[in-house]
Design brief:
Length: 169
């Protein structure tokens, strides 16, 4: 059997795994309040799976399907996390949809941050910093260019903002 034919056969065997991963991506994005279209999710999964199969080609694996499945997950998750962070960073705080968290929902947090910024307790920039790092999953070192400040400065700003918000919340 030729190598391209073998790769296509493995890809076909992995279709149920890829479908499950696509559903997981859609669910993960929905929980984060980010919309992703089915074509984009499918493209991410299929291109990643093709790359994983190419890496595994010619290797003697005891459990090839398990190997491919776990490799797919490890490679797709960072891509999806980055996509979610980028979309959250572009979303205005007021447009973030509510979540179904039991104690403090995302909507509650959004409202607290918006009220604090509007009342002058914190700057709008600091409210965005709190939102992006606490909800959006961004690390402060990833936001240095966006906020024009060093990581340490952003950590101090976030800490001061959180203390000020806690006093009035």
């Amino acid at each position: 059997m030729s190598e391209p034919l073998a790769r296509r056969a493995v890809l076909q065997v992995m279709i149920p795994v890829m479908c499950g991963r696509i559903r997981a991506i859609r669910d993960n994005c929905a929980r984060s309040g980010v919309e992703i279209d089915l074509d984009e999710a499918t493209q991410i999964v299929v291109t990643t799976m093709v790359a994983v199969i190419a890496q595994a080609a010619g290797r003697d694996l005891d459990w090839p399907i398990t190997y491919l499945r776990s490799k797919l997950g490890r490679k797709v998750e960072p891509i999806v996390s980055q996509l979610i962070r980028e979309q959250l960073a572009q979303t205005d705080i007021e447009l973030i949809p509510p979540s179904s968290e039991p104690s403090v929902t995302l909507a509650d947090l959004r409202d607290i941050l918006v009220r604090a910024a509007r009342s002058g307790v914190v700057s709008e920039s600091d409210a965005q910093l709190v939102w992006l790092t606490r909800v959006g999953g961004w690390e402060t070192h990833e936001l240095t260019d966006r906020f024009g400040a060093t990581r340490d400065t952003l950590l101090r700003r976030r800490s001061r903002a959180e203390r000020a918000i806690a006093k009035v919340a």
